[in-house]
Design brief:
The protein is 53% helix and 20% strand. A hairpin with a 5-residue loop joins strand 6 and strand 7. Among the domains are: 88 residues; 70 residues. Helix 1 packs antiparallel against helix 2. By secondary structure, the protein is an alpha+beta fold.
Length: 229
Amino acid sequence: MSGQHSTMTLGVAIAVGLIVGAALGARSGDKVALLGKRLETQVSEQAAALEARVGEQAAALEARLGALSAEDPRVEALAARVEELGAEAATLGGQIARVTAVDDRVTVLAEQMANIVAELQALSGAAPAPAAEPAPEPAAAAETPAAAPASATGEPVTLSVGQTASFGATAVFLSRVDAAAGNAHLMVVGQGPATVGASAGALTLDDGCALRLVEARDRSAVLSRVCAQ
């Protein structure tokens, strides 16, 4: 770059000298030579200053490029962290899927329990009465928490969580009560889960009647079977 500037400086000086010499024609040769040298000196100084500024800008640019190169490890670390977060998100998605599968199994188990309770109620109702014979006074029969009486039309029935009751020909198992929301969560035997209450309304039974929630309590619900007149 220095050689190119020197050549340019010399060429400019010669050209300026020729132009000045032609313009001054009649003046003495010493004055023309002196003026040419002054112009050549000024041009050389300006070219040197320009070369210095270009050199400074090139050095600053190289320094900036070096700083950017030094920042590369941090950029690579950030990209690696993004990949780690993506892997963690995929793992969390798999865990959510497993929890959902467990919830489905719990629902199936609750339905199976309701079916068993309904079968036990049917068997206890069909069992023949034992023959009368002298016997000691029997102890009071223990109450079964999973059973409740059948409901006639319009007669409310109170079910505790875990109990089953028959409404018409439909057996219903109470699995959970949300008193704050005013909903009762049921398991209809042979059909699956259902909700009655403020957000879901009534449940249509197999015989065309409707099962309505009369009251939602902390651990129990009052249900009523209503049929159209």
